[in-house]
Amino acid sequence: MFRRIALAIFALSIGFYSYAQGTPERGWTDKNNAEEYAAYLIRIAYSEFGYLGARVQVRENGTRRIFEVERGRVYHIKAVRILGSNDLPAEAMTAAPTVGDVYCNARINGWVDTLRSRYKKDASWGMRVDHANASVTIEVGLDAESIPHPK
């Protein structure tokens, strides 16, 4: 009796595994999950160079996968707004991203980290994206009450 139950469970698990490893249109698989994650990482890499609207599609070419990237437009900084009490010295603002710069998440994070470490501010930042004009408004909160939240 135990062997029959074990055989039935084994047969069902093999059937389920075979079904799950089918084509991506039939459901989730490890393979298409890895491809989607790779496409996500490519989009993140392009966004670091200002391409916030980048699109990545995975195409099959026999046994190979090809990632097609449509970069879109480069996004520039439209404005940098300081929320809360702005008692920063002028030298702190010289390192800030300026209007017209290409949007770069790493550069803004570096500047905000400097505000935290050197100037002892409880700084955090958010952004408003204008897709029609390919621009970004950076909002920096310097205290807990004015910390921006993603919109």
SSE inventory with pairings:
Elements: H1 2-20, H2 30-47, E1 55-61, E2 64-70, E3 76-83, H3 90-94, H4 105-117, E4 124-130, E5 135-141
Parallel strand pairs: 3-5
Antiparallel strand pairs: 1-2, 4-5
Descriptive overview:
36% of the residues lie in helices and 24% in strands. The chain is an alpha+beta fold and 151 residues long. A three-stranded mixed beta sheet has the order 3-5-4, with helices on one face. Strand 1 (55-61) and strand 2 form a beta hairpin. The protein is elongated and about 60 Å long. The relative contact order is 0.13. The model has no long low-confidence stretch (mean pLDDT 81).
- Proportion of residues in helical segments: 25-40%
Report the strand count.
Answer: 5
Structural class: alpha+beta
Element string (H = helix, E = strand) = HHEEEHHEE
Q: Strand-residue fraction? A: 15-25%
- Please mark out the parts with pLDDT under 50 across 5 or more consecutive residues, or reply none: none
Coarse shape: elongated
Biggest sheet layout: 3 strands, mixed
Count of runs of 4 or more consecutive helical residues: 4
Radius of gyration: 24 Å
Distance between the termini: 60 Å
Strand order of the largest sheet: 3-5-4
Overall pLDDT metric: 81
Q: What's a quick, concise take on this entry?
A:
The protein is of the alpha+beta class and 151 residues long. The protein has helices at residues 2-20, 30-47, 90-94, 105-117, and strands spanning 55-61, 64-70, 76-83, 124-130, 135-141. The protein is built from 4 helices and 5 strands, in the order H-H-E-E-E-H-H-E-E.
